[in-house]
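quick one: beta-D-galactopyranuronic acid bound model?
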Amino acid sequence: MRHLIDLRHAWACAAFLLTAATCVSNATAFEPNYDESKIAPYKLPDPLVMEDGSAVTTPGRWENQRRAELLELFRKHVYGFSPEPCQIRSERVSEKQVLDGKATRSEVDVFFGSGDDAASMRLLIYVPTSADGPVPAFLGLNFQGNHSIDSDPSIQLNPGWFRNRGETTDGNRTTEAARGVAADRWPVDLIVSRGYGLVTIYYGDIDPDFDDGFNNGIHGALGDSLTGVEDESRWGSIAAWAYGLSRALDYLQSDQCPSIDGDRVAVIGHSRLGKTSLWAGASDPRFAMVISNDSGCGGAALSRRAIGETVGRINTSFPHWFNDKFNEYNENESALPVDQHELLALIAPRPLYVASATEDRWADPKGEFLSAVHADPVYRLLDTDGMGSDAAPEQMPSPDQPINEGVIGYHLRTGKHDLTEYDWRQYLEFADRHLRSSRPRE
Ligand code: GTR
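yep, here:
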């Protein structure tokens, strides 16, 4: 008997070691490529050629046919189909003068649906008090809760699920230590002093960032309203977060929010939330300007280059971000019917700003730049100056030399994967050019 137990013990140990070894080897199996000369030859799909091979040579054909075709392809193969817009209702929770009277800060709950038990997200809104009418504004999701933007203890600590971050969380709950930790990424004073509003929302209010089979957050609350869609093409988390941004825009465009001009809202996001701002801007033409900060794979970076993070890698690490069908393109990017320059093209002719950082090789800065370059022909077809001058630039700009003359902006900031004051200053200048005068609603 003892031998049997020993034998079992030995087997259990062997099995454990084997599993551990497999885990370690799985975890270490992916070696990112950073060598341009090792990129397999690829051909990008042409945004100005329809799936049937015919050319798109007029703005009308782009608007009426190709744009819809591309949107459908991105929904089916990458981000997933989302439900139709739900009705929203809103409740103001607080209002306070802040920044020595320079801004009014409010907290507003926006509910996904009219029922008492509807899921909700909380908007933290700053509006300059000096404004003599509705202001243009930036709208962006945040990673660590609205209370991480500003250390003022009167901002409510978010009671929802948080990714475990050690010092600022206790298990999956946020703590007092999170207050103001993300203030560097949200220079409220600067934004407000330049005459803009700022609206931010904790992304986990919309969909907690973990893989639970698409059930939590608004996936659970609204998922049933998504009918006639193959399971593999249902909305992933990026699509859910983008859906939340569009409902926030519903609120900003409503009579409930007279201090912000809902027709002059720039959607902004960093990293996974930059992927989200791009999908929000591509799928919802009411966003007047779109900003992608270090969005990388599945955001601005071309998938076919497979430099740094790849489609296979992102789908393995974050299986819930995209739809399930996107897995078909793991290590098989050339089979994708789209690439990310076409995502950028879906934002045309609206102002678009793509930013990269020199040390952010995981996000493939060159792939982000090239994506903007290859979206340029669509912008020009739509009668804009794209990346400026007569044609898109052939070379990547040097670090800290923004390209911002045209309606597509780009910069490569010195430094790491982050959203910094330098980035914000470029966005503010770009917004000054493009968002200052009001534009008619579509
Ligand atoms: C990384 C991921 C990136 C990027 C980033 C972030 O782990 O690989 O695609 O989205 O997270 O969102 O911070």
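The pocket of beta-D-galactopyranuronic acid is lined by residues 271-272, 296-297, 309, 314, 317 (CB under 6 Å).
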